[in-house]
Automatic annotation (TrEMBL):
Residues 1-43 form the GOLD domain. It comes from Ceratopteris richardii (Triangle waterfern). One of its GO terms (cellular component) is membrane. Belongs to the EMP24/GP25L family. This is GOLD domain-containing protein. It is a single-pass type I membrane protein. InterPro entries: Emp24-like, GOLD_dom. Keywords: Membrane, Signal, Transmembrane, Transmembrane helix. Its main location: membrane. It comes from the Eukaryota.
Amino acid sequence: MVLSHQGTAGNKFEFRAPRKGPYKFCFHNKGGTPENIAFYVHVGHIPNYHDLAKDEHLDLVNVKIAELREALEAISTEQQYLRARDLRHRYIVESTQRRLLGYTAA
């Protein structure tokens, strides 16, 4: 096991893999009710500055570009998460509204 993480809805976390290779994600629900899980995995690589220093053609600008690329990916992931959360909330609101109308009309 590389990482064990407990959280609630909306939690985000990241970790750096200690070695290359395939990884498995396991989810466990201790509660009795079914839960929906949505997750996004981004595999990225920010080059190590010491590794780049070995190549004369790469410099600090390329490291910053890689970091910006990772930051942009994080922003994109956050947008996807917020859109999915908005859709879930909209579904709940519309469902509640239908039930309220049903109760008041009866």
